[in-house]
TrEMBL record:
<dbReference type="InterPro" id="IPR029016">
    <property type="entry name" value="GAF-like_dom_sf"/>
</dbReference>
<protein>
    <submittedName>
        <fullName>ANTAR domain-containing protein</fullName>
    </submittedName>
</protein>
<dbReference type="GO" id="GO:0016301">
    <property type="term" value="F:kinase activity"/>
</dbReference>
<dbReference type="InterPro" id="IPR011006">
    <property type="entry name" value="CheY-like_superfamily"/>
</dbReference>
<dbReference type="InterPro" id="IPR012074">
    <property type="entry name" value="GAF_ANTAR"/>
</dbReference>
<dbReference type="Pfam" id="PF03861">
    <property type="entry name" value="ANTAR"/>
</dbReference>
<dbReference type="Pfam" id="PF01590">
    <property type="entry name" value="GAF"/>
</dbReference>
<feature type="domain" description="ANTAR">
    <location>
        <begin position="159"/>
        <end position="220"/>
    </location>
</feature>
<keyword id="KW-0805">Transcription regulation</keyword>
<dbReference type="InterPro" id="IPR005561">
    <property type="entry name" value="ANTAR"/>
</dbReference>
<keyword id="KW-0418">Kinase</keyword>
<dbReference type="InterPro" id="IPR036388">
    <property type="entry name" value="WH-like_DNA-bd_sf"/>
</dbReference>
<dbReference type="InterPro" id="IPR003018">
    <property type="entry name" value="GAF"/>
</dbReference>
<keyword id="KW-0804">Transcription</keyword>
<keyword id="KW-0808">Transferase</keyword>
<dbReference type="GO" id="GO:0003723">
    <property type="term" value="F:RNA binding"/>
</dbReference>
Length: 236
């Protein structure tokens, strides 16, 4: 029996998911798609780096994971095509005869899936990935089903954007802590005030063309200013 998801229910599931680990949060929404009868298998494909295939997370079944991973070995695939095109939706009515990606098509059909729909996941800064829906039957998706898939995709986009934002925040906090540690080393070694120690780091960054965080990382690791044979502060 399928579940008829209401927008308020999905919103509540997403609210709870935001407090969970990213994989668990995305798995919850992939399961919502299966529970609604949109797919027999589902997963989320995170956008790959530099044209690589998607990183599959939140798979409802090991087979969904394996199908998503095919784009790492096949030449091209639907998820990369959807992400590159910027379209909101891609539906393949017969996986075995998808002409655009023959290598992927043959491998995917061999797993037993018959159809696939991918919903683009995106936020203000661009595409984050895709919600991947697989059917083992030839029953086509209806218009209302595709609209529900898009709605679940919106919620998955929120989870991905939240996870990315949280990761970015922690990276920023870690970078600031490193810079603070580097300032402390200079303050102790050269009896500098905090703002003067920061200015030393900033000037080294400018004169060497190196990011401030990298300067700080090197100083914390080596206890020496980079490209310096002396223990003196940065040049004026």
């Amino acid at each position: 029996m399928t579940h008829e998801w209401q927008p308020a229910e999905l919103a509540e599931r997403t609210r709870r998911a935001l407090g969970a680990e990213e994989d668990d949060a995305l798995l919850s929404l992939a399961r919502a798609a299966v529970e609604a009868g949109l797919a027999d298998l589902a997963a989320v494909g995170r956008r790959g780096i530099d044209g690589d295939g998607p990183t599959v997370v939140g798979a409802t079944d090991p087979l969904a994971q394996a199908i998503g991973d095919l784009e790492h070995t096949a030449t091209g695939g639907p998820v990369r095509s959807l992400i590159d095109s910027g379209d909101d939706l891609l539906t393949i009515g017969d996986v075995a005869t998808a002409p655009a990606w023959p290598e992927w098509s043959a491998a995917a059909a061999a797993t037993g899936i018959r159809q696939m729909t991918a919903v683009r996941l995106h936020a203000d800064r661009g595409t984050l990935g895709a919600l991947l829906l697989y059917r083992t039957t030839s029953v086509p998706w209806t218009g209302p089903e595709l609209e529900l898939a898009k709605l679940i995709g919106v919620h998955a986009s929120i989870v991905l954007a939240h996870a990315d934002g949280t990761a970015h925040l922690w990276r920023a906090i870690d970078a600031r802590n490193r810079i603070g540690q580097a300032q402390g080393i200079l303050m102790e070694r050269f009896s500098l005030a905090a703002d003067t120690a920061f200015e030393v780091l900033r000037r080294y960054s400018q004169t060497t063309g190196t990011k401030l965080q990298s300067i700080a990382d090197d100083l914390v690791r080596t206890r020496k200013l980079p490209q310096s044979d002396s223990d003196g502060p940065a040049p004026n």
